[in-house]
Amino acid sequence: MKDSNFLKEHNARSMWHPMAHxxxxxxxxxxxxxxxxxxxxxxxxxxxxxxAVGGLWNVNLGFSCxxxxxxxxxxxxxxxxxxxxRGTSNDAVIELSEELRRFFAPDGLTxxxxxxxxxxxxxxxLRLARQYHKIKxxxxxxxxxxxxxxxxxxxxxxxxxxxxxxxxxxxxxxLAGCHHIPAPYTYRNPFNESDPAKLAQLCLAALEDEIxxxxxxxxxxxxxxxxxxxxxxxxxHETFMPGVREICTRHGILLIADEVITAFGRTGSxxxxxxxxxxxxxxxxAKAITNGYFPFGAVMIAEEVAQVFESDRTGAAAIGHxxxxxGHPVGAAAALACLAETERLxxxxxxxxxxxxxxxxxxxxxxxxxxxxxxxxxxxxxCALELVSDxxxxxxxxxxxxxxxxxxxxxxxxxxxxxGPNIIMSPPLILxxxxxxxxxxxxxxxxxxx
Length: 450
Known about the structure:
By secondary structure, the chain is α/β, with parallel strands linked by helices. It has 2 domains: 31-64 and 346-448, Aspartate Aminotransferase, domain 1, CATH 3.90.1150; 67-345, 3-Layer(aba) Sandwich (Aspartate Aminotransferase, domain 2). Helix content is 40%, strand content 16%. The protein has 15 helices and 16 strands. It has helices at 4-10, 22-27, 54-57, 66-78, 91-103, 118-135, 156-161, 196-214, 240-251, 272-275, 303-310, 329-345, 347-368, 399-411, 433-448; strands spanning 33-37, 40-43, 48-51, 109-115, 143-147, 178-181, 219-224, 254-258, 282-285, 297-302, 372-376, 383-390, 395-396, 414-415, 417-419, 422-425. Strand 15 (417-419) and strand 16 form a beta hairpin. The longest helix is centred in the last third of the chain and has 22 residues, at 347-368. It is globular.
């Protein structure tokens, strides 16, 4: 390992960081994390903080989960890689598929298609949705609907259904036939409606209107996050996702649940769809499936959809899609160990309890500081603060001010994530009450420094 001076000097010289301007990374060197234990990370200068970001929404079980590390090491000794393309498989991925079938049975999902991560999972679901309709003789169903403010990864398909211009504009033109409806975002929406239940109905009406405008028989699928994550942690009213499910079913449109963030306990339920009592046609997973220790994902497929593919005798259901690392044996071994530990710890209970504590604490900060325009959360360990320079006008805060809050909070003991005017928190699900208090105290210090 090179010394700290070398690492600091060369951090952004020979690499570009994702989701950042290359020049900004040179002018403002990122934090260099060199070790982690439990829910804490340590930087190159030895400063240790509670990681309120959870890696990137994915380290649900913390940074020192021994069973997952042991499973990875053992699998590397046994079989470090082999393809699962037609004609070959491996023991770990077969076992994992049965475990995922059991785990997602309440969601009505019985088959798994493996990927290398969340963006791959979204791309896979979009492709399979189009193919599903072709098998049924409805090849004209090619369009996709999604929510503004939604985030679905960075592939061309995912970017096309994304509802945030930051991930679209520089890469347009994108995939044709992708259309968006307003998100159930009570703080900012075109209806000027702050009541969650009323807003949900207005957004559902907008969905019906868009379907009528596009023609239901041209639409392949609607994709949504059960709780919008990267868009600023936007939880819909409890009636919204069930309403989407009913509309999609009535019009023959597939429902894709993007659960790259919400699957495996983050909402305080085992899946975000289950949190709202909905069974999707496809569910995109990744992130917490291996606790972030190995790039891996799975698209879970509903039994009814699987039957359409498996009963085809024309050849139309042959899947011409996959990745070199689909069903990677090391990833499968990691996922098996991660799922077992996730269930053993019953992380949903702690996610719900600590999520309530964090959400309540953030509301107390909002009562103390006018710069906090909106507090969002209340469904497990995913919360956000939207900062404003004028609370009455909801004027978004400037980059420098929110950067100061983040930096002071880091020095005071907590790593938080900044996205636009939002401070986003998605800490590990093994967080303690004391850890939550450290996060809140660090944020308090950050706001007090302004």
